[in-house]
Amino acid sequence: EVKEKGLLSIKHLAGSHSEVLLPRLHDVCWAVTSEVTNLRSKVSYSAIVTLGELFVALKKDMDPEVDEVVWVLFRMVRNSPEFVQKAATQTLGIMVENVTPARAMTALIDSGVRSRHVQVRKCAAELLLSLMEKIGVTELAGTARAERLAQAAGTLAQDCHKDTR
């Protein structure tokens, strides 16, 4: 209960007084992501939702935290009850919408496309597709990111799982 109240407080701070969190953002994100893997699924769910609120409220200020958060959320996608998986997938979608596209793409490719788990690769493929639609093909054309995305798309297109392809 104490952890859930703390996570709720962080959500409220992010929504109404985000400037309070900014100087210690790394520490706050570390504390929240450490609760994502809590064995109590209720606490884990609350931490995942709190991360989504942080992405919504702080947007591009969350860029430095993306790699660690994506790694932990993908871990929950592959190894959790269904409602926690759904929350992790939704929070990853929120992350894609709110952080710098290049940062999101790098984290998704590094943590998702290379995963051994089908659920994680499927989720990464869906998020990369939505990210590419958000950025637009013309914006990507001719950049170094386009080459990396093309390699990831090639890997996903050859995946043994049909939903990932």
Automatic annotation (TrEMBL):
Cellular component aspect of the GO annotation: cilium; cytoplasmic microtubule
Domain CLASP N-terminal: 18-136
Gene Ontology molecular-function annotations: microtubule binding
Record SUPFAM superfamilies: ARM repeat
Name of the encoding gene: Togaram2_0
GO biological process: microtubule cytoskeleton organization
Name listed for the protein in its UniProt record: TGRM2 protein
Pfam family, one: CLASP_N
